[in-house]
């Protein structure tokens, strides 16, 4: 009896010894402090003496914050989630980590929050790697000039304001002028072109993002896209980090040698979130109450867009930041900052939008500073002349409105200009292939449409597009692949266009 008891005790001890041998006791130390006050989106913490700038701080209930203001005796923490449950007196601890997001191919087709958390119903995001949200921009030595075009599929942009891969082009306009539409059409146009698209929504309503998602899905564009969103209901800290997180996600693909497009919709709301944060942190306000470092906040972000050299994989990150203006005031603080950081701007005009001249691009006030070098050669046959004569036309049109008597040449410029404007119009969600764009613009630019009544231009345009794609597939393909338009190609194009115009004339009542 006694012996069997001894045996069983020995056995138990053996088991305990085995279990202990398999485990390793580890002492994890956390520097712990206490929350002393909680405000909307921010908290003040005392007792985290060793905390570093931008280090993650663990708060009550698994909530994370980011150390932001390091004052001698307390830390201002930006909350990265809803802080409703947070109360003064609760514990806070250092994590020793900085903010990072998951990166990888598994994110394609997904909708994630600013911390990389999935927001769609497709379950967890299965990535292997995480990278910091804030990363330094590629150094100059790793960068190459912008030489390859990024086709938007929009006639007015591809011909007059071409965008190159690795460029940063600002989309600027008042409320409801078609800013998002331009970015969305550009994303749709990347289908089958091997470009990864990241759309970063900042401070929008959830319903707006849901609508965008529907369009991406409907046009078969979700497979190569990623949506990163921080809605207007989220704390300012989350909205503030969203574009940096989206850029980190985009850079992963660029560093693999891929071409990537990123849209920030929009940086005005981003600036507002940052302003709110800074005011809550009691940082001194400057112009328009924005903190003094708002310029740095945006330049640090947009500097990350680039074309990498071939030795670095040759990938590119093209950025289309969007900014909202008030009453077309492009010299307000945030728009001017962004204009000076980017390589050009597409300015949208509410007047044009009201008249239904869409996309409402104000050609005279828009510019693309580096894209010209990247434009496909076939556009050169049409673009230079077109831009100049179009701007002349716009000036003349204002003048003609006063009932001035015009000479014959001016009347011809007006007639041609009206038709050029007509062909620069484009329906939303209908990006147009290169060759069709060139054929249509050539027709208008050469004044061949002058005999066609303005209201019939759209119909003739469609006929030209169909004829050119059907009858000249080889020339179309050569244009698309970046070959210049030789004289014979031009003659062939004009011949096909001529036939269409003759038929159209006969058919006209
Ligand atoms: N080329 C176009 N053809 C037809 N409709 C268009 C075109 N571009 C934009 N729209 C329509 O105009 C409206 C406003 O466009 P959009 O939402 O892109 O503007 P926004 O400037 O981004 O607005 P917000 O300031 O609210 O963000 C939308 O209903 C859109 O469908
Ligand atoms: Mg918008």
Automatic annotation (TrEMBL):
Ion transport in keyword set: yes
Membrane topology label: Peripheral membrane protein
Catalytic activity: ATP + H2O + 4 H(+)(in) = ADP + phosphate + 5 H(+)(out)
Enzyme's top EC category: translocase
The ATP synthase alpha subunit C-terminal domain, residue ranges: 375-497
Subcellular location(s) of the protein: Cell membrane; Membrane
Self-association and partners: F-type ATPases have 2 components, CF(1) - the catalytic core - and CF(0) - the membrane proton channel. CF(1) has five subunits: alpha(3), beta(3), gamma(1), delta(1), epsilon(1). CF(0) has four main subunits: a(1), b(1), b'(1) and c(9-12).
Name by which UniProt lists this protein: ATP synthase subunit alpha
Gene behind this protein: atpA
């Amino acid at each position: 009896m006694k012996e069997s008891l001894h045996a069983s005790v020995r056995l138990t001890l053996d088991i305990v010894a085995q279990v202990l041998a398999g485990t390793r006791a580890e002492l994890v130390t956390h520097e712990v402090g206490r929350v002393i006050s909680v405000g909307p989106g921010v908290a003040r913490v005392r007792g985290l003496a060793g905390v570093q700038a931008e280090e993650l701080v663990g708060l009550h209930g698994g909530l994370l914050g980011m150390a932001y203001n390091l004052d001698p005796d307390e830390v201002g923490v930006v909350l990265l989630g809803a802080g409703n449950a947070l109360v003064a007196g609760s514990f806070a601890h250092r994590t020793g980590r900085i903010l990072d997001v998951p990166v990888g191919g598994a994110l394609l087709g997904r909708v994630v929050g600013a911390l990389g958390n999935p927001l769609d119903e497709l379950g967890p995001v299965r990535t292997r790697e995480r990278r910091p949200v804030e990363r330094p921009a590629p150094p100059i030595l790793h960068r190459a000039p912008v030489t390859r075009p990024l086709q938007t599929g929009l006639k007015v942009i591809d011909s007059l304001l071409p965008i190159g891969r690795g460029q940063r082009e600002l989309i600027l306009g008042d409320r409801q002028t078609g800013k998002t539409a331009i970015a969305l059409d550009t994303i749709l146009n990347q289908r089958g072109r091997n470009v990864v698209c990241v759309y970063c929504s900042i401070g929008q309503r959830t319903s707006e993002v849901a609508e965008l998602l529907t369009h991406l899905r409907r046009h078969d564009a979700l497979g190569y896209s990623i949506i990163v969103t921080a809605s207007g209901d989220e704390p300012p800290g989350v909205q503030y980090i969203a574009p940096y997180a989206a850029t980190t996600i985009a850079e992963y693909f660029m560093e693999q040698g891929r071409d990537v497009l990123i849209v920030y919709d929009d940086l005005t709301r981003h600036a507002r979130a940052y302003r709110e944060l800074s005011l809550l942190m009691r940082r001194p306000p400057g112009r328009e109450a924005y903190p003094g470092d708002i310029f740095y906040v945006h330049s640090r972000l947009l500097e990350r867009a680039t074309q990498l050299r071939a030795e670095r994989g040759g990938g590119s990150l093209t950025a289309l930041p969007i900014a909202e203006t008030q009453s077309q005031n492009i010299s307000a603080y945030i728009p001017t900052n962004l204009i000076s950081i980017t390589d050009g701007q597409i300015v949208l005009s509410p007047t044009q939008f009201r008249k239904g001249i869409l996309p409402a691009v104000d050609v005279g006030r828009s510019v693309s500073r580096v894209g010209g070098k990247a434009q496909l050669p076939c556009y050169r046959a049409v673009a230079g002349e077109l831009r100049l004569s179009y701007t002349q036309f716009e000036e003349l049109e204002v003048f003609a409105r006063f009932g001035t008597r015009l000479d014959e040449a001016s009347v011809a410029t007006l007639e041609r200009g009206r038709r050029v404007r007509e062909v620069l119009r484009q329906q939303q969600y209908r990006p147009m292939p290169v060759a069709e764009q060139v054929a249509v613009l050539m027709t208008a630019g050469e004044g061949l449409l002058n005999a066609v009544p303005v209201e019939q231009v759209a119909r003739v345009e469609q006929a030209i597009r169909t004829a050119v794609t059907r009858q000249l597939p080889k020339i179309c393909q050569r244009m698309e692949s970046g070959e210049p338009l030789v004289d014979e190609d031009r003659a062939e194009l004009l011949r096909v266009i001529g036939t269409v115009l003759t038929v159209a004339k006969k058919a006209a009542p």
